[in-house]
Amino acid sequence: MNYQYFTSESVAAGHPDKVCDQISDAVLDAALINSPKSRVAVETLVTTNKIVMAGEVTCPKEIDYEKIARRVVKRLGYTNPIYGFTIESKVFVYIHQQSPDIARGADKDGAGDQGMMFGYACNETKELMPLPIIISHRLVEKMDEMRETKKIPYLRPDGKSEVKVKYENGKSISVDKIILAVPHNPKIENGELKHDLYKNVVVPVLEKFGYKIPEEDLIANGTGKWEIGGPSTDTGVTGRKIIVDSYGGMARIGGGAFSGKDPTKVDRSGAYAARYLAKNIVANDLADRCEVQLAYV
């Protein structure tokens, strides 16, 4: 580690790409509840008033894909027609059974394909994850909480965070800058938004890590107002946030995304196994940082 600063970002649960990840994973959950031997590879695309689901599912019981998608959209807060994407959006389903060629390999060897993946851990945080990505996650989680509990009642679904951390001799010593972006009621001025986010999101999150920043080091909606977010302004697709899903760019990752894939898809299960190995090496004080590569050949 020879860098002085490192920056990572995260996205809120209502971010378009994360909407897709959660719909795909909700299908996976439903299939595995029906049968642990289900095979699932589901991709989702969301855009203005449309949800498109495609892929392969082999499951002994019928799955109500449309109902699952609408349930996720409702949970994420897309209930107002002004968002241009709601629980009433049209759902298109193009899902068929898994290829017998893939099924043959998975049934025989447990892995449906070749692949390489990485796992990483470090002792910067109690989660054994890099500090920039963990703070980024906690910030968007707190923003979502403020919206859901109406403690900041004018916030709307969607949002992002970015955190810049300063390092010295490989150790984090300060948080230097935070960026938060979140859609909101247009009647709210940027100054009010920034102050509310600083007081209710930034301060309590950073306190848990032993850091603080002045309000002027927070950038809130840097382009000004952000009225409408979500899929009507930014089309979402499953698997486009793999850096957010892993280590915030501080470690290498494999070539595949996680969401919507059953355990025979080694993009997911292999990455989880590699993380498990790396985490236990660090947790047992065998290393401050550890990166593990696995390959299925």
From TrEMBL:
Its main location: cytoplasm. One of its GO terms (molecular function) is ATP binding. Pathway: Amino-acid biosynthesis; S-adenosyl-L-methionine biosynthesis; S-adenosyl-L-methionine from L-methionine: step 1/1. It is found in: Cytoplasm. It comes from the Bacteria. Its EC number is 2.5.1.6. Residues 5-100 form the S-adenosylmethionine synthetase N-terminal domain. Residues 228-296 form the S-adenosylmethionine synthetase C-terminal domain. PANTHER family: S-ADENOSYLMETHIONINE SYNTHETASE. This is Methionine adenosyltransferase. It comes from Candidatus Shapirobacteria bacterium CG09_land_8_20_14_0_10_39_12.
